[in-house]
Predict the 3D structure of the following.
Amino acid sequence: MARLESVHPVLMCRDVAASVGFFERLGFVAIFQDDSKAPRYAALERDSVQIHLQWADASQWAHPVDRPAYRFVVSDVDALYGDFESRQALDRPSDETRSPWHRPGDTPWGTREFHLRDPDGNGLHFYRAL
């Protein structure tokens, strides 16, 4: 029987180069860009996880505040948060837009997690079951 082996989400981006820089600050490494100066498609990898980035015209952004979220299972939530913090890669939300999970915390649904957003507002959730 065939089985699924992995998934490579493709995140919409207004500026692929800026998003590549953001994910590199999170420790991802670019493994492909269709153009080194003005990419419209790129793939990055950290550990065994790949993220793909694709340029999207403003007309494709129907709901600018309703962006998708991507959940990453991680081995150690606090260590990963510390790694991102040491890379100065964490967003600093204002009080009015702050998620209750902007720092690692235990959730009522049985996980430890933290959330951040990429430059285009896509949600990135890093978590582990308790």
About this structure: The domain at 10-57+67-129 is CATH 3.10.180.10 (2,3-Dihydroxybiphenyl 1,2-Dioxygenase; domain 1). The chain is about 15% helix and 35% strand. The mean pLDDT is 87. Residues 43 and 52 are 4 Å apart (CA to CA).
